[in-house]
């Protein structure tokens, strides 16, 4: 298990996140404007989550497309190699030299 130092980027980010979360408990809804602000915060966070999911799904689809393209290319290369091996085999067979 990795031993973290206070200066590690992960620890700095965790401290910042913890500071944000502790500030949340100071908020109180006392009127309609506060309620509207909180609802707008929720809506904004939901939009951010949707954007993150959409970005991830697009990258995932791109990866799957790339994987399919690479697999197709590898199949073509394999077929070309097998064809070349067959040609070499036929050449040696017709020359009756055989393989050593």
Provide a short characterization of the protein structure:
Helix content is 80%, strand content 0%. With 100 residues, the protein is mainly α.
How would you characterize this protein structure?
By secondary structure, the chain is mostly helical. It has helices spanning 9-24, 32-95. The longest helix has 64 residues, at 32-95. The chain is elongated.
Task: Map the helices and strands.
Elements: H1 9-24, H2 32-95
Detail the poorly predicted runs.
none
Rg from C-alpha positions?
Answer: 31 Å
Distance between the termini: 55 Å
**What string gives the helices and strands in order?**
HH
Mean pLDDT: 88
Largest sheet: none
Number of helices: 2
**Helix/strand structural class:** mainly alpha
Number of distinct beta strands: 0
**Residue fraction in strands:** under 5%
**Helix percentage range:** over 70%
The protein's oligomeric status is single chain
Broad shape? elongated
Salient structural properties:
100 residues; mainly alpha; 2 helices
